[in-house]
Amino acid sequence: MKIDVTEHGPHIAIVTIDNQPRRNAMTRQMMADLAATWDRLETSACRCVVLTGAGDKAFNAGADVSGDLSASEDTARIINRALLKTCAYPKPIIAAVNGVCAGGGVELMLASDIRLAVPDARFGLPEVKWAIYPFGGSTAKLVHQISYVHAMKLLLTAEMITADEAVRINLINEIVPRERLMERALEVAMAIAANSPRAVQAVKHHVSAGFAANALAREPDEQVLGDKVRASADFVEGVAAFRAKRQPNYE
């Protein structure tokens, strides 16, 4: 379980989420490591980041629900930074989606700027199925990145969608054959890195600041709503059902 960072030339960083037995779901420690990675890259010579998952099954399946599900203020700050939820970030990010992208994986993808996916990638926000509030920014960001009706369908039905559907609703840019995914991501990254880093990063900072300000302004209310869900019998049943790999039974 790790966050791996490699360099592609002097100005491109490849960040790989690696927890393959759990479809690259992130533990609390991995969230902290990813947050620290963003901190390091922000002040580095990096001009563009390619973000992907290890293996050929998943980009990121969100939080590792088998582990710690606490929600202290310190934990929330780490998660917010890991998912770039409430902060402006100056470095462009390309998501190379190599498989399942669900829950917090979608919320992490929402912090990216250009999104490429393999043909068999799947996308979804299944949190409400398991009585988990989607804390990672989807309620604040998704409706501003795709249309309201498509955003609400993803948020409320908990259904997974295909890569073709993700292109149709403008959740991702393009579908790329698996064998060309990283090649194509690096092509786009190199095109960005060839431009003025000051201009590129000014544009990225300003655009991401708008999303961050909206999410930050709504954070107190979101914490209250999420805490109510977490304190409910639904949450107990939903998490138990997820861990037991059965359908939940809400009363």
The CATH topology of the domain at 2-176 is given as: 2-enoyl-CoA Hydratase, Chain A, domain 1
CATH 4th-level superfamily of the domain at 2-176: 2-enoyl-CoA Hydratase, Chain A, domain 1
Order of helices and strands: EEHEEHEEHEEHHEHEHHH
> Taking strands numbered 1, 2, ... along the chain, how are they ordered across the largest sheet?
1-2-3-5-7-10
Main sheet makeup: 6 strands, mixed
Radius of gyration: 17 Å
Q: Beta fraction of the residues?
A: 15-25%
Number of helices: 9
Label the overall shape: globular
Round the mean pLDDT to the nearest integer and report it. Answer: 94
Indicate the low-confidence ranges by residue numbers. Answer: none
Quantity of strands, as a count: 10
Text of the CATH class of the domain at 2-176: Alpha Beta
Can you give a write-up of this model?
With 251 residues, the protein is α/β, with parallel strands linked by helices. 45% of the residues lie in helices and 17% in strands. It has helices spanning 28-42, 73-82, 104-109, 138-145, 148-157, 163-168, 181-193, 197-230, 233-244, and strands at 2-8, 12-18, 48-53, 58-60, 93-97, 100-102, 114-117, 122-124, 160-162, 174-175. The chain has a six-stranded mixed β-sheet with strand order 1-2-3-5-7-10, with helices on both faces. A hairpin with a 3-residue loop joins strand 1 (2-8) and strand 2.
